[in-house]
Amino acid sequence: MAKVGIVMGSDSDMPVMAKAAEILDKFGIDYEMTIISAHREPDIFFSWAKAAEEKGMKVIIAGAGKAAHLPGMCAALFPLPVIGIPMKTSDLGGVDSLYSIVQMPSGIPVATVAINGGANAGILAAKILAASDEDLLAKLKAYSENLKNDVVKKADKLEQIGYQEYLKQM
Question: For the whole prediction, is pTM greater than 0.90?
Fold first, then answer.
């Protein structure tokens, strides 16, 4: 199966990036996870990003905060899809990261999920891979059906017991 690269600029990003990995695990998608600072070790980053395609990676999920150059630099070097995860920051709450990732120049797109959106990055990577993998597509359809069923169950419960009792049980 195709591989996904998961790269982050700091180990402080790990809790968010782990959510992407958990989703990939759920769907049985292979991935490689690493920590590389595009600013502090550009030579290592360039080698990793340039070798990603050769290693069988079909999508890269890159998380970064503040200046958040990692996803854009991945997109500049890697010819396949890159998904950027803007990290919440103490300075500007992650809006700085979001703007840095989403405002890429023409010709260098980065698909961008919400601030700290690790799970959605994993789902988006799975959806990209599912375009050419029927088994994975079936798993994604079942996942979506389960999400729907969970909401229906909650709505039924609310209707049965009322909102006050529902709140007590949350």
Answer: yes
> Three-state SS across 58-126?
EEEEEEECCCCCHHHHHHHHCCCCEEEEECCCCCCCCHHHHHHHHCCCCCCCCEECCCCCHHHHHHHHH
Residues 159, 157: Cα–Cα separation, whole Å? 5
Cβ–Cβ under 8 Å, residues 63 and 74: no
C-beta of residue 126 within 8 angstroms of C-beta of residue 97: no
Per-residue tokens: 51 = 């070798």
What's at 114, amino acid-wise? A
pLDDT digits (tens, 9 = 90+) for 99-151: 999 999 999 999 999 999 999 999 999 999 999 999 999 999 999 999 999 99
